[in-house]
Amino acid sequence: MGWNVRDFFSGTHCAYSFFRSATRPILDASNRIIALLGGQPREQPGKQTGMSFRAALQMAENTIIRIMDRLPFHSHRRGPCKERTMGASYGGGQTQPSILRQAPNEAPLLEEMLSCEGIYRIAKWADFLFKTYQPQIHERCMQSLRKLAEVLPDVAHPFPGGFPDTFWAGATTNRGTAAHQGTTWPHTDQGNLAWAWCAVTALGKFNPDKGGHLIFWDLGLVIRFPPGSTILLPSALLVHSNVALMDGEERISLVHFTAGGLFRYVDNGCKTDKVFMETDYRRMSDEARGEWHKERAERWNNALGLMTVWGNNEQE
């Protein structure tokens, strides 16, 4: 099932027009920044060094289309899109963090795609936005990722622009089918760290006034999401999806993220939960165990304390 943007003009959702040239935070009731409409960097013609960001976006789009055209369709829970996920991950029975395995015939193509300079530029821009608007959350996460890179160097740098150069350890590309261009079903990405952001960059050729909007179901927001712009969101928490496009249009999502299991592994002293419980936890005194459980119970509140409050920062 797909949704048309007209379906939401019933009073239950608020439409918000987001333009590429603007950066706008989304705030909660306590003025904490919970998501960010990141837009794209402002560049003055003739003054940027190297490739312009506009050219980087076009290169990324062309590369993704060229490679995804050569890959078969795989169904998945997010919707009727051709999707591939790459990078470092931990969970699903893995004994330690590792690079996601790809089909032998697809691995060289996906490596080529993630080596694209345009995708690298997008990853760096998204990381800059995260670091600028959530500096304490970003730094807390980067401390863990730098530690992970020291312990497991083979997992580090899963692609150009990947951790520990940036926050991003994984990347996903979504390309719509002919029947469901750019549509994703309402979902959360529960494997991501709850209080961190993932970055979604919209590519393709479509009219953002007619379709491709990002829906935040929990917040009652339908956000205009033009091609070439980036939105950062806590995808493990907020249910989100996309509005369908008009006939003949195409939308591609490039998503950068980091699996929450990587941080859990580092917090365990670079051990699995099972090994940690059988070693460190077993040797703890009752008092130390109490402190350990208390720290785990307070993680969410501690993370809230690190979030940027709009009006108490220099971004306003």
Structural overview:
The protein is globular, with a radius of gyration of 20 Å. It is 30% helix and 19% strand. Helix 1 (53-68) crosses helix 3 (117-133) and helix 4 crosses helix 5. The protein is α+β, with helices and mostly antiparallel strands.
Notable traits:
disordered N terminus; alpha+beta; single chain; 316 residues; 8-stranded antiparallel beta sheet; 30% helix; globular
In short, what is this structure?
This protein has 316 residues and is of the alpha+beta class. Helices cover 30% and strands 19% of the residues.
Lay out the secondary structure.
Layout: E1 14-16, E2 24-27, E3 33-39, H1 53-68, E4 81-89, E5 98-99, H2 107-114, H3 117-133, H4 135-151, E6 170-176, E7 198-205, E8 214-216, E9 221-223, E10 230-233, E11 240-242, E12 250-257, H5 260-267, H6 273-278, H7 280-283, H8 286-297, H9 299-306
Parallel strand pairs: 1-9
Antiparallel strand pairs: 2-3, 3-10, 4-5, 4-6, 6-12, 7-10, 7-12, 8-9, 8-11
Helix pairs in contact: 1-3, 3-4, 4-5
Supply the number of helical segments.
Answer: 9
The secondary-structure element order is EEEHEEHHHEEEEEEEHHHHH
Main beta-sheet annotation:
8 strands, antiparallel
Shape, principal axes of CA atoms: globular
Return the structural class. Answer: alpha+beta
How are the strands ordered across the major sheet?
2-3-10-7-12-6-4-5
Residue share in β-strands: 15-25%
Determine the mean pLDDT.
87
End-to-end Cα distance, whole Å, is: 39 Å
